[in-house]
Design goal:
2 domains; 12 helices; binds nicotinamide-adenine-dinucleotide; Dihydrodipicolinate Reductase, domain 2; 9-stranded mixed β-sheet; alpha/beta; 6-stranded parallel β-sheet; single chain
């Protein structure tokens, strides 16, 4: 076999982009062999754009009728694990869009099933192909930064308008999407955060619901994380700020990394700061510091890179850049962040009680009334001036 006959379930924004990549040869050995969507307008677009490719409206039928080696799942998050499991059950390799699902419970069940199958299971964490993040991971894992002290990621360049949220009914509702910025935009960064710095042990979070949009879920989040060795992490994200920032800073006992605007700045101390702190005879020493910059000329192969890697894993056994079983990690952080916020911003130790999370999410989904309309979330119209008063 030198081609991988591939079907796509869910041919919306990203599924259609993947279909175009496959049909134009940008996805390596993946060959577009079938498409499936339930929305009539999406089905019509598939037929018009890819007249030689069979189009289905029932993915189970597609799995029975189409000659396929692999399937890409690009439907709303809540359906990812159920459909991926059916794909594996049919004997096909599967690539799931991010996030791997909405709950750790479902991701764990899919992982358990996938481990019993001799099939490739990948997840679309396309930002793992970015050379900046790969370099940061390599520097941290190799110990060049020493022991980690702190990471701070401000990632507020996920700006979205009300039009975006209104573009599909499932978006930004507890019943349809199951979350907001944490579940839709930030999974890329949450995944990279744990990929580079490892998993935290405890999460405390503030998730502000509908702060900037008429939605049912959060659009502004602050997470504080504690790691096993005493390191801390702060992760701030929002879809309501413009211009946004995307800046990751990681400090260790031997140096510091700053990633922003396509450049990685790497500071290396000549001596470990912990040694200096306890052996220096000076109070305010200047520690000799080397400085290097890394500015790759591109942001990596992104989606097409993950698609090609998926094909290579199937055809040659190449290691996956984003194994599907790793999708549970960023989901663990985001589920824990919701749990912390819902319980009154309390610290949540990992692994957390996923049944408690599932119950709390289910009750939100059960009382989901769709996206609110009407009043526009704004600031308090000038009352903010009181914040500069001296009141005590
Ligand atoms: N990796 C990335 O950069 C990236 C970018 C965008 C979206 N995504 C992810 O891809 C997924 C889809 O997002 P989108 O923006 O393309 O959404 P979308 O609403 O544009 O597309 C989803 C499509 O799935 C179809 N669908 C729903 N239920 C189905 C079913 N049972 N069978 C077949 N088709 C079904 C819908 O009709 C729709 O066309 C989400 O999980 C999202 O997080 C990832």
């Amino acid at each position: 076999m030198n081609k991988v006959k591939t079907g796509i379930i869910g041919v919306g924004n990203i599924g259609y982009a993947h279909a175009q990549s496959l049909s134009s040869g940008k996805a390596g050995a993946l060959q577009l062999a079938a498409l499936c969507d339930i929305a009539p307008e999406r089905v019509a677009r598939c037929k018009a754009s890819f007249p030689d490719v069979p189009v289905f409206t029932d993915y189970l039928q597609m799995l029975v009728d189409a000659a396929l080696d692999a399937v890409i799942v690009a439907v709303p998050h809540r359906l990812h694990c159920d459909i991926a499991q059916q794909v594996l059950r049919s004997g096909r390799h599967v690539l799931v869009e991010k996030p791997v699902d909405v709950t750790v419970t479902k991701a764990a069940a899919l992982n358990a099933y996938a481990k019993t199958q001799d099939l490739v299971f990948a997840v679309m964490f396309n930002q793992r192909t970015d050379p900046l993040f790969a370099r940061a991971r390599q520097l941290v894992k190799s110990g060049r930064l020493g022991a980690l002290k702190r990471s701070v990621w401000i990632v507020t360049n996920w700006y979205r308008t009300q039009q975006y949220y209104d573009s599909a009914d499932w978006r930004a509702t507890w019943s349809g999407e199951g979350g907001g910025v944490l579940l839709n935009q930030a999974p890329h960064n949450l995944d990279l955060w744990q990929w580079i710095c490892g998993m935290p042990q405890e999460i405390t979070a503030f998730c502000d619901v509908a702060k900037y949009h008429n939605i049912e879920v959060e659009d502004d989040v602050a997470i504080f994380a504690r790691f096993a060795d005493g390191a801390t992490g702060t992760f701030l994200t929002s879809t309501g700020e413009y211009p946004g920032t995307n800046r990751l800073e990681i400090s260790g006992t031997r140096g510091k990394l700053v990633l922003e605007n396509g450049t990685l700045k790497h500071y290396t101390l000549a001596q470990d700061e912990r040694d200096v702190c306890f052996h220096s005879v000076e109070s305010f020493p200047q520690i000799p510091t080397d400085y290097e910059e890394f500015s790759p000329d591109n942001a990596g192969s992104s989606h097409n890179g993950i698609l090609r890697n998926f094909a290579d894993a199937i055809l040659t056994g190449a290691p996956l850049l984003a194994p599907g079983v790793e999708g549970i990690r960023e989901l663990t952080i985001s589920n824990a962040a919701y749990l912390s916020a819902w319980k009154g911003n309390v610290p949540v130790k990992l692994p957390f009680d996923s049944r408690e999370f599932d119950r709390m999410l289910a009750s939100r989904a059960a009382s989901s009334g769709g996206k609110p309309t009407g009043g526009k979330p704004t600031s308090d119209g000038g009352g903010y001036l009181a914040r500069w008063s001296v009141n005590w």
